[in-house]
Design goal:
The complex is a heterodimer.
Chain A (H helix, E strand, L loop, with lengths): L3 E2 L4 E5 L4 E3 L2 E2 L6 E8 L6 E7 L6 E3 L2 E6 L4 E6 L8 E9 L4 E4 L3 E6 L1
Parallel strand pairs in A: 2-12
Antiparallel strand pairs in A: 1-4, 3-9, 5-6, 5-10, 7-8, 8-9, 10-11, 10-12
Chain B lengths: L3 E4 L2 E4 L5 E7 L6 E7 L5 E8 L5 E2 L8 E7 L2 E6 L8 E12 L5 E8 L3 E5 L1
Parallel strand pairs in B: 2-11
Antiparallel strand pairs in B: 1-3, 3-8, 4-5, 4-9, 5-6, 7-8, 9-10, 9-11
Classes of the chains: A mainly beta, B mainly beta.
């Protein structure tokens, strides 16, 4: 079973629109970490956020916000007022402490059209 | 923040040759490093976990004799693709792990830092 699901394979939005990228995870661990990474065309992963399983507070960083809901095993990522530079592939990832390895979701390719 | 470098950033080689990729943690020591492979338009897939001074742990389906991993020091891990073939062409990414500890010794969670990747093309 896929441990990290990103149901949206590709999303296109017009600049300045808000967009939410979904992430649903599966784990039996009580202690785990969730991540979001951005991968622009250059290929280098850009770390966006790390959240542990005991911290359900939502977080906002500039135009980025994250909604962590343990009840639904989701860790969704919203970009407000999207910009062309936001165009990239975004990966959600899960780190289960019992396995000590990061499992990446399939990624969502976001295209922001000017 | 912690920096991880990879060398080379890209490499083109002929089929049948071996290619070595280096992963270095520049300003911290990493007892554990990870190697990932990413095919075009796909996600990162963990290939192996490399612990300093011991044998690497390979994920299911990854040939350990083909992908040789050496983690001889706390700042360097190498991945050697032996007898490379066109199907080995991929983007290889390493990451290095820092163990987070408070002054009292409690683990506060590990951090993983990714290298910029190495694009391998086998002709």
């Amino acid at each position: 079973a896929q441990k990290v699901t990103q149901a949206q394979t590709e999303i296109s939005v017009v600049e300045k629109e808000d967009v939410t990228l979904d992430c649903v995870y599966e784990t039996r661990d009580t202690t785990y970490y969730l991540f979001w990474y951005k991968q622009p065309p250059s290929g280098e992963l850009v770390f966006l956020i790390r959240r542990n399983s005991f911290d359900e507070q939502n977080e906002i960083s500039g135009r980025y916000s994250w909604n962590f809901q343990k009840s639904t095993s989701s860790f969704n990522f919203t970009i407000t007022a999207s910009q062309v530079v936001d165009s990239a592939v975004y990966f959600c990832a899960l780190w289960e402490t019992s396995y000590d390895k990061v499992i990446f979701g399939p990624g969502t390719s976001l295209s922001v059209i000017p | 923040g912690a920096v991880v470098s990879q060398h080379p950033s890209w490499v083109i080689c002929k089929s049948g040759t071996s290619v070595k990729i280096e992963c270095r943690s520049l300003d911290f020591q990493a007892t554990t490093m990870f190697w990932y492979r990413q095919f075009p338009k796909q996600s990162l897939m963990l290939m192996a976990t490399s612990n300093e001074g011991s044998k690497a742990t390979y994920e299911q389906g990854v040939e350990k004799d083909k992908f040789l991993i050496n983690h001889a020091s706390l700042t360097l891990s190498t991945l050697t693709v032996t007898s490379a073939h066109p199907e080995d062409s991929s983007f290889y990414i390493c990451s290095a792990e820092i163990s987070g500890r408070l002054a009292g010794g409690d683990v506060i969670g590990n951090e993983q830092f990714f290298g910029p990747g190495t694009r391998l093309t086998v002709l």
